[in-house]
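Deliverable D2.4 — example input (structure tokens):
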């Protein structure tokens, strides 16, 4: 959806009394949210001093949250940034009004395995999420990365970056006796689409990934 269309939707939603009130008191809420953020403890490092990602049992499920920055149209609409990644926690703030109409902020804290914020790069995400499963896979393990989120939350952006690093690591780390097999599908409703050729054309745009494309077996 184009920026202008998104802005039009926001303008229509402003007809909702609560949202209109919040936007009218944006500066007050922004100050309260920033004060809350400053009171949070320092985030913990993703990787310890020995460059080890916190260990997980083979059968564990790691829950990872990545909070993106506000998009251009959101900043233009003067929306508030209400979600904060403070590894290993995610803090969600909700602007509210008391019965007397006084602005206040409620917060909810959720514990996760990894909480990435706008200042954390896709390489940071890969180092914690993707690299360990490459090592597991090359030792015979099975693993899955599952991305879930609403439209425009950043799923495609993040997964694309993870895949590029993952492909390069597979080439660098695999033993000569191993063969790589690759299948790529899109499942949409009751339809399955083979994306193998399409995705390889997308990824095989530099010399490193061309080497991968020449060595992978479908």
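Example output (designed residues):
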């Amino acid at each position: 959806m184009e920026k202008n269309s998104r802005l039009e939707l926001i303008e229509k939603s402003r007809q909702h009394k609560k949202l209109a009130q919040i936007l009218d008191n944006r500066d007050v809420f922004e100050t309260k949210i920033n004060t809350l953020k400053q009171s949070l403890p320092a985030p913990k490092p993703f990787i310890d001093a020995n460059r080890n990602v916190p260990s997980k049992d083979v059968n564990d499920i790691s829950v990872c949250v990545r909070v993106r920055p506000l998009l251009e149209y959101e900043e233009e609409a003067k929306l508030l940034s209400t979600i904060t990644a403070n590894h290993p926690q995610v803090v969600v703030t909700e602007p509210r009004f008391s019965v007397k109409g006084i602005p206040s902020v409620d917060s909810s804290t959720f514990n996760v395995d990894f909480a990435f914020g706008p200042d954390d790069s896709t390489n940071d995400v890969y180092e914690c999420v993707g690299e360990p499963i490459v090592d597991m896979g090359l030792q015979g393990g099975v693993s899955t990365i599952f991305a879930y989120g609403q439209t425009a939350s950043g799923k495609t952006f993040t997964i694309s970056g993870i895949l590029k690093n993952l492909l390069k690591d597979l080439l660098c780390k695999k033993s000569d006796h191993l063969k790589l097999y690759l299948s790529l599908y899109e499942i949409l409703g009751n339809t399955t689409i083979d994306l193998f050729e399409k995705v390889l054309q997308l990824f095989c745009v530099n010399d490193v990934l061309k080497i991968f494309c020449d060595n992978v077996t479908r």
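The beta strands are 64-66, 83-86, 89-97, 103-111, 114-116, 180-181, 185-188, 191-194, 216-217.
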